[in-house]
Records
---
Amino acid sequence: MAAVREKQMTPETLGNGVYDPSNFRHFAPEEATVVLMYGQDPDVGVVVWNLEPGQENSTHTHPDSAHVITVLAGSGEYLKDGSPVPIKAGECLIVPRGVVHGLRNTGGERLSYLAVTNVSPSGYTRTPTGGGHA
């Protein structure tokens, strides 16, 4: 996963707080990219994931935090507990803490999604599960 950091906002640089998540869509042919949209907040983090056809955010868990994911563009599969669930633009996924999950672009177009997560007292934690396919 490649991280793009140049536009990340913080509580101090948030401005009026109104932003178009499509401005945070940056793709790379080598691997999925994650754009850090909003961070350094003790309560919440916001990122935009961007996947070319065939790319994925491999399966993992967050033992200390939950996610809400909104598919911005494209289609693919939500890999929930190892089972693929079809997803498409406009849909919202709710991922409780500890649930094994990942997303894969199985469509012919670019897939982007906005992920909002709470931040636990131990910070942002991500545990790979070894599942999924690149």
---
Amino acid sequence: MPDKSNFWTQQREDGKWESKREGADRASKVTDTQAEAWKYSKDHAREEKGEAFLKGRDNKIRERNTYGDDPNPPKG
């Protein structure tokens, strides 16, 4: 079941970057740069107290930020 408070940033086939709410069919925002889409994802994940995920061109998660209850908090 998708967590609708999470946002994903990834590159589209047309070369543009999108921010997409987890489980959504359509992008929330499409931009020309990765930086713009990543900022949008982080801002909205912060508002929703969710997570923001950044996928690289190889489709692997490069970065993630948690803004709500962290399921894997750092030790120490």
---
Amino acid sequence: MASKVALLFEDNPLCRDLMTEILREKDFKVTAFADPTHYLADKIDCHCCADTACADALITDNQMPGMTGLELLQRFDKNGCKLPNHRKAIISGSWSNEEYHQARQLGCKIFHKPASIEEIHQWLDGQH
């Protein structure tokens, strides 16, 4: 049984299913959302408990309905998410220079679509 938890935000159903399988291969229990605003509607603040992070990994697409992945990660940080930045990742097939710069400033892992399964596995294994 998976003991690690991953939050996944991806509006494309095929990408969401593929990423879910990649995470499950690494023994993550995956909670996936097509729209980050639906997740946030139930979670006014980050739901990290005391000194415990809300998940072991967080992966978000950048271009989604309602808000970008960058905005989502900034919201998590603002609300006190305890998940270290190196355990957060953002993925996009079309990075603008400004978006890429913002993602680098957040300190999260940056993936370019299509990201290889090997590249994602290395990040999940801590070999980023």
